[in-house]
């Protein structure tokens, strides 16, 4: 799994309470990313990580991105979704070309605390109560 350039490979790990704060990027692809389907080689089968990802905050992320990839990518597991993602103070502009206004979100729950550039409209609000109980049963209480 990949979170903002950090690869997590432990299949039963928990990633809780991480904050990315005051980061400046220049001409990067996917400056904000969580990818539970990440694979470092081309011959990987598409397996979903069982890493429990919650309480991840992106604050004050500014700079430019390469328009070949969306500036925000949240690819979370069907079995173990990402929860309580928080974005604030996001100002990402294209290095060249038009702004990409299509962030990628899959099974990602959270909120943008304030208007971001580009806007993040795809995060879902609170996960269903049944899902929260299942996550606690599967991963333990944080």
UniProtKB/TrEMBL annotation:
Pfam families: Glyco_hydro_28 (PF00295). Coiled coil: none annotated. SUPFAM superfamilies: Pectin lyase-like. Keywords: Cell wall, Cell wall biogenesis/degradation, Glycosidase, Hydrolase, Secreted. InterPro entries: Glyco_hydro_28 (IPR000743), Pectin_lyas_fold (IPR012334), Pectin_lyase_fold/virulence (IPR011050). One of its GO terms (molecular function) is polygalacturonase activity. One of its GO terms (biological process) is carbohydrate metabolic process. Belongs to the glycosyl hydrolase 28 family. It comes from Brassica carinata. This is Polygalacturonase. It is found in: Secreted, Cell wall. Signal peptide: none annotated.
């Amino acid at each position: 799994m990949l979170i903002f350039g950090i690869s997590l490979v432990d299949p039963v790990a928990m990633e809780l309470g991480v904050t990315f704060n005051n980061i400046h990027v220049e001409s990067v692809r996917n400056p904000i990313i969580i990818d539970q389907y990440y694979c470092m080689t081309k011959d990987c089968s598409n397996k979903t990580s069982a890493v429990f990802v919650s309480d991840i905050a992106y604050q004050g992320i500014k700079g430019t991105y390469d328009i070949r990839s969306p500036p925000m990518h949240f690819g979370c597991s069907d079995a173990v979704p990402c929860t309580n993602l928080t974005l604030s103070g996001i100002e990402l502009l294209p290095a060249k070309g038009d702004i990409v206004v299509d962030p990628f979100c899959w099974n990602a729950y959270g909120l943008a605390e304030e208007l971001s550039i580009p806007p993040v409209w795809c995060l879902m609000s609170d996960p269903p109560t049944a899902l929260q109980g299942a996550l606690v049963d599967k991963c333990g209480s944080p």
